[in-house]
Design brief:
- The complex is a heterodimer of chains A (117) and B (114).
- With 117 residues, chain A is an all-beta fold.
- Chain A contains no helices and 11 strands.
- In chain A, strands 2, 4, 5, 6, 9, 10 and 11 form a 7-stranded mixed sheet that branches. Chain A has a 4-stranded antiparallel sheet with strand order 1-3-8-7, with no helix packed on it.
- Chain B has 114 residues and is mainly beta.
- Chain B has no helices and 11 strands.
- The chains are: A mainly beta (117), B mainly beta (114).
């Protein structure tokens, strides 16, 4: 079974520039999450999708971050304009129902490492 | 506020010894907990999970213990191997209905000495 795919793997931009990340979920996984992981910390949830609808975006800085999941499959996360503090790894995770103990186990992609200069 | 945290940021063990990684959580309403392993340059990888109606669950070389009285979670790794070197995160799964959300702790780095 193919895992969660993310691209690009690395990105270096200057502050105030824009950047976009792409995620392709495991086939059949309806739930998709974007996390931000700052160096030395655990991942922090930014947004959760169920199919193509947003379930929770309470932690997404909406003045500069946006995300979409058109057609309920692939998803993109955009930052415009970027700030220095946005330097982090952006992880995509997807989940299918009923795989473990009644919960939705989240499977993570390799992440996109963003450096804002 | 709600949080999931870890007692030790770094744990160094001798190859072949057992490792114990601890985690404290503060939300007594959470009913599902997961341990993830994250190697350098990779995303978190599922290790083992446990529901709040259980005290213990075993996998291959790993055991998770849950003490709801003191809101404490631990991951035990038997016969630790060099490949176990990574950062380990406990995560608390909470959400309404089917909107499962993970709250991660800050992680413990496990170093295995040869």
């Amino acid at each position: 079974e193919a895992g969660v795919a993310q691209s690009p793997r690395y990105k270096i931009i200057e502050k105030r520039q824009s950047v976009a990340f792409w995620c392709n979920p495991i086939s059949g996984h309806a739930t998709l999450y974007w996390y931000q992981q700052i160096l030395g910390q655990g991942p922090k949830l930014l947004i959760q999708f169920q199919n193509n609808g947003v379930v929770d975006d309470s932690q997404l800085p909406k003045d500069r971050f946006s995300a979409e999941r058109l057609k309920g499959v692939d998803s993109t996360l955009k930052i415009q304009p970027a700030k220095l503090e946005d330097s982090a790894v952006y992880l995509c995770a997807t989940a299918g129902p009923g795989q473990r103990m009644g919960g939705e186990t989240q499977y993570f992609g390799p992440g996109t490492r963003l450096l804002v200069l | 506020g709600e949080s999931v945290g870890l007692h030790l940021p770094t744990l160094s063990v001798q190859e072949g010894d057992n490792s114990i990684i601890n985690c404290a959580y503060s939300n007594s309403a959470s009913d599902y907990f997961i341990w993830y392993k994250q190697e350098s340059g990779k995303g978190p990888q599922f290790i083992i999970d446990i529901r709040s109606n259980m005290d213990k669950r075993q996998g291959q070389r790993v055991t998770v213990l849950l003490n709801k009285t003191v809101k404490h979670l631990s991951l035990q790794i038997a016969a630790t191997q060099p490949g176990d070197s990574a950062v380990y995160f406990c995560a608390e799964n909470k959400g309404l209905d089917s909107s499962y959300k993970l709250i991660f702790g800050s992680g413990t780095r496990l170093l295995v000495r040869p």
